[in-house]
Amino acid sequence: MTIHRPLPAGQVGRSVPRLEARRKVTGRAEYVHNLVVPGMLHTKVVRSTVPHGRILSIDTAAAEALEGVYRVVTADDIRTVVPDPWYGPAFHDQPVLAIDKVRHVGEPVVAVLAEDPYVAAEAAQLVVVEYEPMEPVFDEIEAMTSTAVVHEVLKPAGTFPDLKHLVGRRDTNVALDYRLRRGDVDAAFAAADRVFEHEFKTQQVMHTPLEPMVSLAEPGDDALTIHTASQSPSFVRIEIARLLGWPENRVRVKVPYLGGGFGAKLYIKLEALVACLALLTRRPVKWSLTMEEQFYTITKHASTFRIASAVKDGHVTGRRCEVFWNGGAYADIGPRVTQKSGFTAPGPYDIDNVAIDSYALYTNRPPAGALRGFGIPQLVWAYESHTDLIARGLGVDPVAFRRRNILREGRPQATGTVLRDAAIEGVLDDIARRMDWDKPFDRGSGTTQRGRGIAVGFKASIAPTTSVAIVNVAADGSANLYLSTVDMGQGSDTAMAQIVAETLALRTEDVKVVHPDTDVTPYDMATLGSRSTFHAGNAVKLAAEHARDQIEALAKSLGLPPGSNYGPADLFKKKYGMQAGNIIGVGTYIPDYKSPAPETGLSDNVTPFWMVGGTGVEIEVDTETGHVRILRMVNACDVGRPLNPKIVETQISGAALMQLGFTMFENMDLDGGQVTNASLADYKIPGMHDVPDEIESLITEAEQHSGPYGAKGVGESATFGVSPAIANAIHDAVGIRLTALPLSPEAVFRALREAEGNTGTDAK
Amino acid sequence: MDASETARTIRFTLNGRPVTTTVESHLDLVDLLRRLDHFGARESCGQGLCGCCTVLVDGVAMSGCLTLAQLVDGRRVDAVEGLDRGGALSPVQQAFIDEGAFQCGFCTPGFVLMTHQLLERNPNPSEGEIRDFLAGNLCRCAAYPEIIRAVKSAASRMRASAAA
Question: Which UniProt keywords apply (chain B) (predicted)?
C-alpha cells in the first residue's frame, strides 16, 4: 500500500462501507463463537429449577463418573480461587455459582467440564440439586411490600458514589429509590383545569443476539487471558482483577467482532465463571450459551409507570411520575437505569413542577439490565401514550399539543439542566412533515380501519465516563487506531477510522483499527448507551490531533516552512534517513458533569449530550381479528452531524424494527419464574414479513457542538417513539387504548370487544 | 453405546474439494464444518429457525444445525467460504456490501447463500417474493430494508451479466 500526500478533508460525512465488510459477507469475520484453543475444555452449567430456594444438597457423583468428564465444580471450589465471589457493576450481589440459595430459575449452580461439549451437557443432566423452596416474588409492585425478600442485605459496589447510602440496607427489595422534586407539584395540581392520570406497563423481553453469549479463559503464568463477546472489555479486566485480588495488568481481555450486543453483553456476564474454571483446571475453558440459556441470563426490565399531569390553559403545568423497574434477581445495571432514565420520565416537555420517584426492584425473575435505550423506551411508551390521551381529552390535535408544550433549546429539563443541542422540535416537525400530518387521511372502511400516531422521546447520556484512544502513525504515514470500543455491528470501527482520517488527512480505508485487547488498547468505559461516537469519538479526535501536532512539530524541527507539502512519510525519511519511527498520539476524554443532588435529584449539568428520536406510523386494524398492520413508519433522530450517513440510517431503521418486535409480539412468558417460551420457536423476533410496507429513516438537521465533528450517538434513539406511536395510531383507528405491551392481536381484539360491551367472560 | 462406536467414515466434496473424514452419529453439519475450519455457518438458535447455519447440500439450502454430518456422505456441500474461491466476491456479496445490508454480520452468510438460491430459481423476484423466500432467515440488527435492496441489486447485476 502506498500512502499518498495528504488528501482534502471529507472523510467525515462520507458513507464509507464498513471496513470489515468483505470479512462479513465471506463468513470470515472473527467472533469468539468461532474460537478454538488447543487443550480447551467446554463447560456446561446446571441451572436452578426453582425461582427462590435454599440449596439443601448437591450430588455430583453420577456426573463425575461419566466417561469424559474432566471435573465438576460448585461454589465451594470457586471460593478456593476467589474467596468473596460476588460480582456486578452496580451491586456486588451476583455469585459466580449459587451460594446457599438460588434467586431465579436458570441461575447457575454447578459447572461441569469436559473436552467434548456433548459429554459436558450429558453430565450436567446427571447432577442432582435439592432445594427447599422459598416464597418467591415476581411482580415489581408486589416486590415493594412483599414478605419475600430476594436479597437479605444490599451490597452496592464502590464504583458509584451515589449508591453509597444504600450500604447495609436490610430486608427490602428496593435496590435503589431515586427521587426528583422541582417546583411546587401539589400547587400545580390544585390549580389545574384538568388532571389526567394513567398507568402503563411493559413486559419482560430479551436481546437475543444471534451470536449467543460466549467467553473463553486461558490461564497463563500468573496471568489470565479472557476472550469474550463483551461490550465492555475494560470493565471485565477491572472486575476480574478485583475478584482475584490481582493488579489489572495481569488480566488480559480480548474482544473481536460481536454477533450483536444490544446491551446483553455488557459489564460482566460469563467472564467470572470461565476465569475461575480456567484457574481451577489450569486449562483453557470455553462457555457457550445456547439461545435458551440467554433468556435466563439477561433481559429487559418489565415496568410499571404511574403518570399524572396537571393541565391549565392547554399547558402541562405539573407532572407526577412513579416508575417501578422489575430488575429480576440480580441488580446488574438496573439501579443506573432507575436513576439515569428516571430523571427524564416527564418527557421532552417544558413542565415547571415535577415530581419523580423511580424504584429499582429485586424479584425472582431472570435478571434485567440494559437493552437498547437503558430504560428510555419504557418511559417514552408511558409518557407519549399519556400525552396523546391528554391531547385527545382536550380535543387538541396531538402534534399541535406537543408543539405547545415541547421543551425548547435554552429551557431547563426536569433536573434543571438547560437543553442544548437537542432538536426535539426538529424531530417532531420532520416526522409530521413527512407524514403530511396536516392533510386529510384515508381512515379506511368497514372492518379495515386506519389510523396514525406519532411520538417523540429523549435520553441523557450516561455520565461521567471516560474514553482513551491511541493513534500510531507509522513511517509510511499509515495509521493504526488503538481503541477498546467494541464493534458489535453499529459500525464504530469505520466511524472512528473516519475521524482519524479526517484529522490526519488520510483515506479512511488506510486507517487500521486495532480491536480491544486490554494489554494493548487503552481504557474505554464501555460500548453502551450510544456513548461511543461522542466519548470515544472525542478521545480519538484528540489522539489524532495530538499526532498531527507532533507531525507539524517534526516538520518544523527539520527546518521546513509551515504549510510545506511534505507528507508524513517524507518527514520520517528525512528525520531517520530511512523508513523508520512512529508518532504516537494519545487522547483522553471525560465530559463535565454534576451528579444530581440526593434530596432533590436536581443538577444543572446532568448530561454531556441529549439523544432525540421519534416515530410516526400509519396503521390498519382488522376489527374482526385485532390484527394490526403497519403500512408506513417514519423514524427521525437528532444524531448531530452524521459521520457516516448510510450507517446512521441503518442504525435508525434497525433500532426501530427491533423496538417494533418489543411492541407488537415479543414477550417472555413466565410461569412460576420459568420462561415457557425460551426459544426462537416460541419467542418470535422480527423477520422479513414484519418490516412495514414503507419505512423511512430521517436524519434531522442538527449539530452537537461538543461532539467530534458535530456528531453524537444514534444506536438507541430510533427505539424511543415506536411503541407509543403505534398505540396512539390504534387509538386513532378504532378508539381503544392499550396500556400494556405487547400490542398483540389478542389484546387489540379483547379491547375492541370490551368497548362494544362484550368482554367474552360472561358467556358461561 | 460409546460415541466412537457410532463413528463412520464419510466422503463428500466441500466447496469443490474432496473430503474424507470420520464422524460420530450425533455430530451435525455445522460442527463438522467447524472441525474443517469453516466458520461461516454458525449455530445460533439450534432449531433451524434463524438461518445462521445455512449450508447448501447438493445445491439445496439446509439448516446445518439440523443436518446430521453422516448424511452428507457422497454429496456436494457448499458453504459460504466457496463463493469467493476465485478471489472475487460473488455479485450477491458485492451487492450486500454496496447496500450496507448487514450490521454485526453474524447472520450474513446465511442470507447470502439463501439469496443465491433465490436468484438461481427466480432471476427477477418481486419484493414480495424476496420477503417470502428470506422469511426463514433472521437478522437481529434488522438490516432487512437494506437486504431487500441488496437482493434486488444483485438480481439486476446478475441478469445484466447473463444477458451480456
Answer: 2Fe-2S, Iron, Iron-sulfur, Metal-binding, Oxidoreductase
Are residues A446 and A469 both part of a single domain? no
Q: Do A679 and B47 touch (CB under 8 A)?
A: yes
Q: In this structure, is residue A156 part of a structural domain?
A: no
Q: Are A101 and A233 in a shared domain?
A: yes
Pairing of strands B54-57, B60-63: antiparallel
Residue A691 has pLDDT above 50, yes or no: yes
Please tell me the distance from the alpha carbon of residue A176 to that of residue A325, in angstroms, as a whole number.
Answer: 10
Residue B123 to chain A, least CA–CA distance (Å): 19
Out of B25, B60, B82, pick the residue that ends a domain: B82
Domain shared by B67 and B29, yes or no: yes
Residue A122 in any domain: the answer is: yes
The model's pTM is: 0.97
- Note the pLDDT tens digit of each residue in A481-518: 999 999 999 999 999 999 999 999 999 999 999 999 99
Percent of chain A with pLDDT over 70: 98
Q: How far apart are CA B155 and CA B159, in angstroms?
A: 6
Q: Are residues B78 and B113 in the same domain?
A: no
Range of the domain at B75: 3-82
Mean pLDDT for the stretch of residues A93-110: 98
Mutate to test the interface with A, among B99, B133, B141 (most CBs of A within 10 A): B141
User: Which chain A residues are closer than 8 Å to B34 by Cβ?
Assistant: 34, 36
CA distance B11 to chain A (A): 23
Q: Would residue A248 show up in a list of annotated catalytic residues for this protein?
A: no
Can you tell me whether residue A536 is helix, strand or coil? helix
| Angstroms from B30 CA to nearest CA on chain A | 11
Residues in chain A: 764
Please tell me the distance from the alpha carbon of residue A177 to that of residue A188, in angstroms, as a whole number.
24
- Kindly state whether residues A290 and A326 are assigned to the same domain: no
**Total number of domains in chain B:** 2
Do A337 and A452 fall into the same domain?
Answer: yes
Residues A584 and A478 grouped into a single domain: yes
Residue A115 belongs to what domain range? 38-134+207-294
Segment A727-735 mean pLDDT:
98
Burial (CB < 10 A; 0-12, 13-18, 19+), residue A14, is: middle
> What are phi and psi for residue B158, nearest 5 degrees?
-70, -35
Closest residue of chain B to A650, computed from CA coordinates:
B143
Is a pLDDT exceeding 50 seen at residue A470?
Answer: yes
Partner-chain contact A211 B42, CB within 8 Å: yes
Q: Which of A149-153, A564-568, A650-654, B108-112 has the lowest mean pLDDT?
A: A564-568
User: What is the C-alpha to C-alpha distance for residues A646 and A648, in angstroms, rounded to an integer?
Assistant: 5
Q: Which of A745, A652, A729, A664 is nearest to A697 (CA)?
A: A652
C-alpha cell at A547: 499526532
Rounded to a whole number of angstroms, the distance from the CA of A211 to the nearest CA of chain B is 6
Of A25, A290, A647, the CB nearest to B108: A25
Q: Does A262 touch chain B (CB under 8 A)?
A: yes
CATH number at residue B108: 1.10.150.120
Distance of alpha carbon A386 from alpha carbon A63, whole angstroms: 55
Summarize pLDDT for A159-199 with one digit per residue, the tens: 677 788 888 899 999 999 999 999 999 999 999 999 999 99
| Chain B contacts in chain A segment 352-411 (CB below 8 A) | none
Q: Are residues A259 and A318 in the same domain?
A: no
If asked whether residues A634 and A679 sit together in one domain, one would say yes
Q: Which domain-ending residue is among A571, A589, A607?
A: A589
pLDDT confidence of residue A338: 87
A279 located within any domain: yes
- Residue A598: per-residue pLDDT: 87
Residue A174, domain member (yes or no): no
Among candidates B105, B112, B138 on the partner chain, residue whose Cβ is nearest the Cβ of A489: B105
Q: Which residues 96-155 on chain A approach chain B with CB closer than 8 angstroms?
A: 116, 118
Residue A336 has pLDDT above 50, yes or no: yes
HSE-CB at A521 with a 13 A cutoff on CA atoms is 29
- Can you give the CATH number for the domain in which A678 is found? 3.30.365.10
- Identity (one letter) of the amino acid at A609? F
